[in-house]
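User: My instructor asked us to take a sequence, write out its structure as tokens, and then describe one feature of it. I'm not sure where to start. Here is the sequence I was given:
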Amino acid sequence: MNLIADWVWSQEQAHPVIVPLDQWYETQLVTAQMRRRQAPGWDRVHEAAAQHGIELTAVRETDTHILYEAAGRRLVLPRGDLPAAVADEVIALLEAGA
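Assistant: Let's start with the prediction itself. The structure tokens for your sequence are:
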């Protein structure tokens, strides 16, 4: 992958446009979103909460789950790895409450 910072720019068009710049940019946004999704679920949830100024507070715990309060909501989440689909749902709830 060639970063934009490494590109060589000229005043005149050097070759025909293969992909319009706006389409390339949109593709970069999608790719970045896909990479974030590959990050562990808990990391993504904590990052989203921090971006919205939301604090996740553990209220009660069992051997398998933890009850959290965040943005006026109560969330019961599993201990250990947080599956991507669950992380997506939690992030959507946090963003809706922000």
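For the description part of your assignment, you could build on this observation: The helical segments are 21-38, 41-51, 84-97. Try explaining in your own words what that tells you about the chain.
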